Amino acid sequence: MPRSVNAVARRARRKKVLKQAKGYFGRRKNVWTVAKNAVEKAMSYSYRDRRNKKRTFRRLWITRINAGARMHGMSYSQFMGAVKKNNIELNRKVLADLAMNHPEAFEAVVNKVK
């Protein structure tokens, strides 16, 4: 009985990985073993960093709110505590956008909570 190998599926699998490695530098884009390792590493980084992106944006928003609040004589923690106490339903993303792009609107929020 002749040996049976599934060359079609193997080639498809390899083509899929090499397509994902398109644009990589050097042998990473066209040598199977190198490309496979590079794509696996890239996938693990992308999975990790989809979660890290949420953290970094939250840090950015907090920094912007803090800067805006300190211009009006409040710290970030005092400002956020007052916002929660006054039942203002604005999240950090919106508050940061107000502080950055609409300072008069942010000032109105600060005056409301003072």
UniProtKB/TrEMBL annotation:
Report the protein name in the record.
Large ribosomal subunit protein bL20
Pull one GO CC term from this UniProt entry. ribosome
Q: Record's family?
A: Belongs to the bacterial ribosomal protein bL20 family.
Molecular-function GO terms, alphabetical: rRNA binding; structural constituent of ribosome
What species was this sequence derived from? Nonlabens dokdonensis
What Pfam family does this protein match (any one)?
A: Ribosomal_L20
Question: What GO terms describe the biological role, i.e. biological process, of this protein?
Answer: ribosomal large subunit assembly; translation
Q: Report the InterPro entries cross-referenced here.
A: Ribosomal_bL20 (IPR005813), RIBOSOMAL_L20_CS (IPR049946), Ribosomal_protein_bL20_C (IPR035566)
Task: Tell me what gene encodes this.
Answer: rplT
Give the keywords, sorted.
Answer: Ribonucleoprotein, Ribosomal protein, RNA-binding, rRNA-binding
Protein function: Binds directly to 23S ribosomal RNA and is necessary for the in vitro assembly process of the 50S ribosomal subunit. It is not involved in the protein synthesizing functions of that subunit.
